[in-house]
Design goal:
Keywords: 2Fe-2S, Disulfide bond, Iron, Iron-sulfur, Metal-binding. Helix content is 23%, strand content 23%. The termini are far apart. It has 198 residues and is of the alpha+beta class. It has one domain: Rieske Iron-sulfur Protein (3-layer Sandwich), CATH 2.102.10.10. The protein has 4 helices and 10 strands. The strands form 3 sheets. It has a 4-stranded antiparallel sheet with strand order 5-6-7-8, with no helix packed on it. The protein has a 3-stranded antiparallel sheet with strand order 1-10-9. The structure holds FE2/S2 (inorganic) cluster (FES). FE2/S2 (inorganic) cluster binds at residues 106, 108-109, 111, 127, 129-130, 132, 144-146.
Length: 198
C-alpha cells in the first residue's frame, strides 16, 4: 500500500472536470452517471471518464472532488482521506482491472481497516480490533462482528488515468443514488442537468 504523493487536484483541474460535465451533451451527462455507477460499482472499468460532484461524509456533509493518485495499476492500492481528513479510505485496482474504493473505518467500532495483500486473490480488508474482515471486491462483511458493509467511496478516472474521489455511498447504498444525494446537497442544478431524479 502506498500513500499518494499528490492528494489534490489544482483548481484548474477541478474546474476542467466540472466544465466537462456541464458543457457536454445530454447523452454524455447521462453516460457520466452510468460510468460512475459502473466504475465505482466494481462491474467494469472505463478507460476514459469525466468527473464532477461532491459528496457526503460517508453519508453526511459535502466535499469537492479529490485527486487521489496519478494512476493506480493492477494489484496496487492507495490510502487517502475523503471527504474529510479523518475519513480514511482506500482505493485499489483488482487483478481483473476493476477499480474499487472503500471507507477504512470499521462499521463495528470504527477501528482502522487495513488491506492484507497476501490474503485472497486481491487481498482482503481486515480490522485488527476484533478480527473483522471485508471482501475488497464488494465491501461485504466476510468474518467477525461488523454489522454492515463498508461505505463506498466513488471513484472515477480522467482521460490521463488519474483517479479521483467524487463522492460516497452509505453501506449497501446504490452508488448512483449516493452520487446524486451528494450532488443535490452541493449543486442541485448540476444534479438536474446530469439526470439525477429528485
Ligand atoms: S472495530 Fe472492527 S471488528 Fe470491531
Amino acid at each position: 500500500m502506498t500513500d499518494p504523493s499528490d492528494t489534490g487536484g489544482t483548481p484548474l483541474e477541478h474546474a476542467a472536470l466540472v466544465d466537462r460535465i456541464s458543457a457536454d451533451s445530454l447523452t454524455t451527462r447521462r453516460d457520466y452517471l452510468r460510468i460512475v455507477a459502473t466504475v465505482s460499482g466494481g462491474l467494469a472499468v472505463g478507460s476514459t471518464v469525466v468527473a464532477a460532484g461532491v459528496l457526503p461524509r460517508h453519508g453526511d456533509g459535502t466535499a469537492t472532488p479529490l485527486r487521489i493518485a496519478d494512476r493506480i495499476g493492477r494489484g496496487q492500492a492507495v490510502s487517502f482521506s475523503y471527504p474529510g481528513e479523518d475519513d480514511r479510505a482506500i482505493a485499489a485496482r483488482l487483478s481483473d482491472g476493476t477499480l474499487v474504493g472503500w471507507s477504512t473505518i470499521c462499521t463495528h467500532l470504527a477501528c482502522g481497516v487495513v488491506r492484507r495483500p497476501d490474503h485472497g486473490r486481491d487481498g482482503d480488508l481486515y480490522c485488527p480490533c476484533h478480527e473483522g474482515e471485508f471482501d475488497i471486491r464488494t465491501g461485504e462483511v466476510t468474518a467477525g462482528p461488523p454489522p454492515r458493509p463498508l461505505p463506498r467511496v466513488l471513484l472515477v478516472e480522467d482521460a490521463r488515468g488519474a483517479v479521483w474521489a467524487v463522492g460516497t455511498a452509505r453501506s449497501g447504498e446504490d452508488p448512483q443514488a449516493g452520487l446524486c444525494r451528494g450532488l443535490r446537497e452541493r449543486d442541485p442544478d448540476l444534479a438536474d442537468r446530469i439526470g439525477c431524479d429528485s
